[in-house]
Amino acid sequence: MRIAIGADHGGFDLKLKIIKYLRSKGHEIKDLGCYSAESCDYPRYGAAVASAVSKKKFPRGILICKSGIGMSVVANKYRGVRAALVFDVESARSSREHNDANVLVLSARSINIFKAKKILDVWMYTRRLGGRHLRRVKQISDLEADR
């Protein structure tokens, strides 16, 4: 799968480990920054990944910052982006099945690479559910169209 990934300085180290892991699994990863642990502003990198997903340049994106909250706020400003801040395997599964999340947001303060790998394994391969869940995702898309 093609995946855009971005992080601020707080998520930089975890981002590098995730890139290495996903590439070892055969995924094509596009690193949209940041490129060092030097202090930077998270909206720039959240916007880069969310925009790429919104424009369908990538089917999925991953964002990492210290808390995950800022990146979530930024990413969900973009049409067609359903970013989910995930802390465990169950929320990863639910975000895909129920919300068809296309951007995974991680908190570098709360998630180490071992937990991230478990979350990624579930999030990458879980399919969305149909029925009432698909109906609700469509309602979200309709809200975006009304703006």
Sum up the structure in keywords:
five-stranded parallel β-sheet; alpha/beta; single chain; Ribose 5-phosphate Isomerase B, Chain: A
CATH architecture: 3-Layer(aba) Sandwich
Silhouette: globular
Quote the beta fraction. 15-25%
CATH homologous superfamily title: Sugar-phosphate isomerase, RpiB/LacA/LacB
The run of helices and strands is EHEHEHEHEHH
DSSP helix fraction: 40-55%
Tell me the Rg in angstroms. 14 Å
Low-pLDDT windows of residues = none
Give the count of helical stretches: 6
**Structural class of the secondary elements?**
alpha/beta
Would you kindly provide a written description of the structure presented here, covering whatever features stand out?
- With 147 residues, this protein is an alpha/beta fold.
- The protein has a single domain (2-146), classed as 3-Layer(aba) Sandwich (Ribose 5-phosphate Isomerase B, Chain: A).
- The chain has helices spanning 12-24, 42-54, 69-75, 89-97, 113-125, 132-146; strands at 2-7, 28-31, 60-65, 83-85, 103-107.
- The chain has a five-stranded parallel sheet, with helices on both faces.
- β1 (2-7), α1 (12-24) and β2 form a beta-alpha-beta unit.
- α1 (12-24) packs across α5, α2 (42-54) packs across α3 (69-75) and α4 (89-97) packs parallel to α5.
- The N and C termini lie far apart (31 Å).
In short:
The protein is of the alpha/beta class. It is 48% helix and 16% strand. It contains 6 helices and 5 strands.
